[in-house]
UniProtKB/TrEMBL annotation:
Keyword RNA-binding recorded: no
Family named by the database record: Belongs to the 6-phosphogluconate dehydrogenase family.
Annotated 6-phosphogluconate dehydrogenase C-terminal domain residues: 184-465
Name of the molecule in the record: 6-phosphogluconate dehydrogenase, decarboxylating
Part of the whole protein covered: 163 to 627 of 627
Keyword Plastid: no
An example molecular function term from Gene Ontology annotations: NADP binding
Length: 465
């Protein structure tokens, strides 16, 4: 018998997805490259290690792998994002038949996904670019899946992807057809941008709790008590991280303070600047990671400027919780704003409520707040005009003002908390300072300006001297 579904690439995510597919009763073929005699055959040893893979077929030869699949073939690529995808596509192409479907489940750039989609179309092959979130465990037990491409091609892979995905609170799959070409990878990219901010906010909050005199166990206990109002997957793992001990000391205190990244936060920031959308929290979270990398310079300048280490932080635990909640609302507002604007610019017709829904389970940014957004987006695209969320903003605002001010007075860096109130003050200013920018532009470059007392759109120029 032939296999129903192929999985190309047995890295951490590929392996977990194979087991997930097999656990759900699908007959699969698995491919992993290996150099004979030099390395072990990963596909074979992986199959042998897991009983659920007894029916699965393992290959290290592309032709046999492709020929083992029912037509139209469905092959999911789980290889490193970037050029590798193009090489794999070229390797597979000679063996594929018209209407076969390739699925890219990596963190690919949405612009490349569109190019690959167009290229494969000219070869009669369908391409589904899909975001997959949830890490190793999510991939095994049910990830959030964000597929895009031709809707007809999606119908072919839908039974597989929806079956292996996480399920929401109504037991519906956290997998839905997102939209055309690269839209699935676009929303996965924004998911990661929102993820960067949620992580950074927790890092800032924990720093403030520590500066208030709490040890890691006490921080974990405080965060635990926040679950009632602010629960999320990232909150849960942060609690577990703060509890983890190595010997007599907490592991978290032994970790080098340089944050890595694989580029998706960078892409989100680039996309937002290209689309003209102020995703300021994502940029702040990204740049915080970059700042962290200057460890030597930070250490040097810390001494040079005699930054405060005797802290007199006049904030309560509840102030910190409310500031955190305020910033999270702004984060989600900005993330979905970016998706909204991309949807308009690229005519993707994205459904925000459905996107929020497939992010309520399986993915890294699942949270109570995300669950609330599923309904909010049924009525509005703007979170800040929703009654529940605007009440939250009004309630939390005094705390974010206090927490950010106190942080500044105590020389504590809180870029995302700080940017949340700065952005909020900007987006709620009816008459901004941009009139001055316009005057300056006109002064030095005759770039012209429009006038408040003339709504015809006419451009004015003044001879300023
Ligand atoms: C997910 C994660 C996942 C991965 C990112 C992290 O949704 O499962 O976002 O895709 O953890 O690659 O990215 P950084 O390495 O840039 O932090």
């Amino acid at each position: 018998t032939t296999s129903e579904f192929g999985l190309f690439g047995l890295g951490v995510m590929g392996k977990s997805l194979c087991r997930n597919l097999a656990n759900n009763g699908f007959k699969i073929s698995m491919f992993n490259r290996h150099v004979a005699g030099v390395e072990e055959d990963v596909a074979v040893s992986f199959k042998a290690a897991h009983s659920e893979l007894s029916q699965a077929e393992a290959f290290d030869d592309i032709a046999s792998f492709v020929n083992s699949l029912q037509q139209p073939r469905k092959i999911m690529l789980m290889v490193n994002a970037g050029k590798t995808i193009d090489y794999v596509i070229e390797d597979l192409l000679p063996y594929l038949s018209e209407n076969d479907v390739l699925i890219d489940g990596g963190n690919s750039n949405y612009v490349n996904t569109k190019e690959r989609f167009d290229y494969l179309k000219t070869n009669g092959i369908h391409f589904i670019g899909t975001g997959v979130s949830g890490g190793e465990e999510g991939a095994l037990k049910g990830p959030s899946i964000m597929p895009s491409g031709d809707v007809e091609a999606y119908e072919n892979v839908k039974p597989f992807l929806e079956k292996i995905s996480a399920k929401d609170q109504n037991n519906l799959p956290c997998c839905t057809y997102v939209g055309p070409e690269g839209s699935g990878h676009f929303i996965k990219m924004v998911h990661n941008g929102v993820e960067y901010v949620e992580m950074q906010l927790l890092a800032e909050v924990c720093t403030l709790l520590e500066a208030s005199g709490n040890n890691p166990d006490e921080i974990a206990t405080i965060l635990e008590s926040w679950k009632d109002t602010a629960n999320s997957y990232l909150l849960e793992i942060t609690i577990a991280i703060f509890r983890k001990k190595e010997g007599n000391d907490w592991l978290v205190k032994k970790i080098l303070d340089k944050a890595g990244n694989k580029g998706t936060g960078n892409w989100t920031t680039i996309a937002s600047t290209q689309l003209g959308v102020p995703s300021t929290l994502i940029a702040s979270a990204l740049f915080s990671r970059y700042t962290s990398f200057y460890k030597e310079e930070r250490t040097l300048l810390n001494k040079h400027f005699n930054q405060a280490d005797h802290l007199e932080l006049k904030v309560s635990t509840n102030d910190i919780l409310e500031a955190y909640q305020f910033a999270r609302i702004i984060n989600h507002y900005q993330g979905f704003k970016l998706i909204t604007e991309a949807s308009i610019a690229y005519s993707w017709n994205l459904n925000l409520s459905e996107i929020a829904r497939i992010w309520t389970s399986g993915c890294i940014i699942k949270s109570n707040l995300m669950q609330d957004l599923v309904d909010v987006f049924k009525n509005t695209t703007n979170i800040l005009t929703d009654t529940q969320f605007s009440e939250g903003i009004n309630k939390y605002k005094p705390s974010v003002k206090k927490v950010v001010s106190q942080s500044v007075l105590n020389d504590i860096s809180v870029p995302c908390l700080g940017e949340s109130i700065q952005f909020f003050n900007g987006i709620t200013t009816a008459y901004s300072s941009a009139n001055i920018i316009q005057a300056q532009r006109d002064y030095f470059g005759a770039h012209t300006y429009q006038r408040l007392d003339d709504d015809s759109g006419k451009n004015y120029h003044t001879n300023w001297n």
